[in-house]
Amino acid sequence: MAQHFLLSKQARTLSLAKVIRMSDAEAYEAFKAIRWAENNGEAVCPRCGSVEVYTYAARKIFKCKGCEAQFSVTTATIFASRKMSIRNLLAAIAIFVNGAKGMSALQLSRDLDCQYKTAFVLAHKLREAMGAELKDRKLSGHVEVDGAYFGGYVKPENRKEDRKDRRLKENQTGKRRVVVIVRERGGKSYPEVFRSEDQSVEMIRSRVEAGTTVYADEASSWDALHGSYDTKRVNHSINFKDEDACTNQAESYFSRLRRAEIGTHHLISGRYLVAYAREMAWREDNRRVSNGEQFLMAAGAALGHPVSRQWKGYWQRRAAFTI
Ligand SMILES: [Zn+2]
Questions:
Q1: How far is the CA of 309 from the centre of ligand 1 (A)?
Q2: pLDDT number for residue 323
């Protein structure tokens, strides 16, 4: 039997350069191999799971012998109802994965020569697929917990006498949110968005398994964790590392998210904050994985992820609302 495509050297070193040199047929075969990896790249009916399918010589569609459903290589994935060529979709994934600080829709639209709207939705679909991998994540061993605030920026007035004290609640916009990260040392991360750190304690208890050693800073929100875990604290106003108590890996996650905010998106807040937070967790967790494997993981996540309810027909719906 031929070697499994995803285990081949060719797959592990897939890059943007290789994708753009592919012929249409090669891009289609690579896409099929990723989509139906568990069946050696052969079509599987998305409706009933049957591998008995009719293929057509002239058209790139399949028909299930069992339930008679007709489907294509993108049916029931985030790329259903696509307008882009298969090769461009693969290129989009490669470009997106390569952005260590994230990838803005504007840059993606320039690189792919597509509309901003198309790139915007595509990037969010990829974020959603990456984020979906975190759904059932549990953490254990040595786990760091930390929070950082994003959004709700209030621009200072020009004249000094008009400026307000932005530290006071009445002078804030109410849009500030805290991203709380729970991160296994040398392992996986899980971020979520809250209004304040203390609201995240329930999430931490549900995600972090009993018997875990938890590391946190001196913020009083984390006092509640002492009852559930062996909790070690570090007072950042005194030092950043107290014996083995530190939150350096959580901090390194935040520095990536902050760089994405400042360097790539300029503003990440509100309803998309959690999507960016999860994308950055994916990037941080997979930072030592080779570029080709990152590409395959992101592509595999995207092709294994069902049609996004949030992003399907997004601009059409928006247009309907604004008319
Ligand atoms: Zn079927």
A1: 22
A2: 39
